[in-house]
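subagent[fold] <- orchestrator: predict structure for attached chain, return tokens only, no commentary.
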Amino acid sequence: MTDSKEFIYPEKWLSKASTGDRVASELRMRIISGKIESGTILSENKLAADFSVSRSPVRDALKVLASENIIRLERMGAVVIGLTEKEIKEIYDVRLLIETFVFERLANLDTNELVKELNKIMEMMKIAIKYEDADEFSYQDVLFHETIIRSIHHSYVLMIWHNLKPVMESFILLSMRTRFKEKYEDLARIINNHELYIQAIEAKDRALMIKSLHQNFDDVQGKVDDLWMSQQMLSKGVEPDHE
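subagent[fold] -> orchestrator:
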């Protein structure tokens, strides 16, 4: 297990979080980053000492991580399971499914205020690049997509997003920290992709929306068109063909 003093989850993201959520966020980051390996036994007493908290918030944190299938609860602690490549892929599948659904709904809504808000977030992302602040950039990146998802006022889609968000935050944060250090030039591509999102929403252009999804989910491009077509058919009450 990594040194208890080496906290890798950004404190500034946790201003309103409970102690249990703070512990869960840090443990999640350590597990996803590989600093805590699969098979590691987590002791409630040891974690409480490491984080200088009582066992109660540690127990709460372990319950949260168990609900995410990252650990398996045991008596007085847990065993780290981690996430397989298949599970990581499935997480991105769900995120892609959410965004295709949201884009379809946005095509029929007034998006003027949303576009203004997204442009403000884009400016914050550019400032984060200027000051080489990977954590702030990641925070704004997550906020960008959450703002789009919130805009359709769909309570159950939002519920799914909130369940997905903690793990997604960790993936994005770790990825952006690496990019800022090793692929700084790639940040321009990410900015361009987000600008394409805004253009697609503002123009209510479905073809542009599909293009923006391709560029933002370049690792799962083969599924974008299928998911989009499914949303189109379901919105019209038509069942998609299954071969």
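orchestrator: received. Logging for downstream: The longest strand covers residues 71-74. Residues 155-182 form the longest helix (28 residues).
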